[in-house]
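Annotators were shown the component list below and the corresponding predicted structure, then asked to write short factual statements about the assembly.
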Amino acid sequence: MDEISIKLPAKPEYMTVARLTTAGLANRLGFSIDEIEDLKVAVSEAGNYLINQFSDISVLEIDFFIEDDNKIRAKIAAPAASMVRDHEDKKNELSLFIIESVTDLVEKEEEQGVIKAFSILKTCGGSLKNE
Amino acid sequence: MDIHQVWSDKNNTWHISLSGEIDIYNAPDLKNNLSKLIEEKKGDILIDCADLKYIDSTGLGVLISALRRVKEYNGTIIIKNLKPYIYKIFTITGLDKVFTIEVQE
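Structure shown to annotators:
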């Protein structure tokens, strides 16, 4: 299993870098254009979620795990962040809804009800939901 | 992201074309831009997305808030030439029923 990790400043201007990296990896594995878009959207929305949620977020860590040459598991985490904003609920509901709709599996790492990381699975050549 | 806008007196409509990516970084610019246009002339808004490559939940939020303001004076927002993979985000979120949308062939 290959692993690719990037660490980005948790600033809105760097989300495009997260999307480009995601697209490059998914393209290398032969994901279709729609599958690439789905994964890009999911990774980007997970980053949005964490950036919107934490007021003290400084770093976004994204780890990609290539599984069986046709699956990408992306873990998006804000390991050092802890201070939760109190007015971003609505925005984040939309992010969460989109992430869950475009991926095969989403796992959330929570601490006291606060999501600190997402683990997203996307399979090339079909959704696990349909199997 | 680039925004170009032209006002048409003929049909009382702002013709806007969006290109590039709209995300958490530049969605505030889009919000300011749309707000200014709505303040300047209260008409309908036609958004051409032929060259729009990406929009995230933040961008969708901006469009929803613009629609709310436009509806206050009984206006409409029409979104045309959406790429199918972007239209998918509108359908997932139910926004295909909120906006009038034409998808790019």
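Statements collected:
1. The radius of gyration of chain B is 13 Å.
2. Residues 19 and 93 of chain B are 21 Å apart (CA to CA).
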